[in-house]
């Protein structure tokens, strides 16, 4: 199933036009009442292309969606350990689509997401794009959203050398990526189409990798491969220097097997460039796309969704319950306790 080339060109031109338009007003945060008197009604409004992907890849249709949302909302309302939670359709569909509408698995994924946010608040809470440090990282633009490819996937480009190797700590780089992921997951195109990631390691410094401890690597990989309900397509990586191999081996040891199978490594950036669709290739790699314009457009979307992202902090879950259920000796969000809890979640 492919979009015609002209559609891709038009989509890219629309993104560029939006980047020069006046920014839309900020969107209001969603309610976190776990048992509201009435739930929001949902209407599928994406192009028919995404309806077909949802049906073929996720088993989603109007009836399945309606029934699954009703079951998941009832589970949340009845769960005494979830104190506050968004129940709007767009939020719950993140997890239902991630688990192909298996309601029990979607509920477990939501549980894990809520617990991890509480265990690592410095990484995953107060995700404020207006924070001075976040502004600096966004200005460097280590991650660029190129749009959707012909298969409907969000395509992201990560240029690791654009992370500051001296000024910013790993949790700050991680918080930046959490803002990016939360923003993307508000888009149903990403929920349905998933994502493809291209990673460019050229010009990265030793310190940019060595500043990450084993604990930092575990927290970040858990977010990428377990906590955030992102569906990954191919992951392409190029120009990783030899000094980075041991660190990346440690990083990937925390990934789930399915993610590791999707990673393709290249020795040259030229090989990486061949993985871009022609209309999505940045100028830096020989194509027509202006990354500065795309980065400005995405930053505006992040700013529009700022209150929605910050509003996630209003959700609450009883983490102490999970610590006792999983036979953790004490409840403190340190490496040992958090690691034990996450390990138990993976086993269950």
Automatic annotation (TrEMBL):
Molecular function terms, GO-annotated: phosphatidylinositol bisphosphate binding
Keywords: Signal
CDD domains: SEC14 (cd00170)
Any GO CC annotation of this UniProt entry: membrane
Family matches, as SUPFAM superfamilies: CRAL/TRIO domain, CRAL/TRIO N-terminal domain
Stretches assigned to the CRAL-TRIO domain: 133-293
Signal peptide positions on this chain: 1-19
The keyword Signal is assigned to this record: yes
UniProt-listed Pfam families: CRAL_TRIO (PF00650)
KW Signal (keyword) present: yes
Family annotation (PANTHER family): ALPHA-TOCOPHEROL TRANSFER PROTEIN-RELATED, LD40136P
Name this polypeptide is given: CRAL-TRIO domain-containing protein
Source organism: Anopheles atroparvus
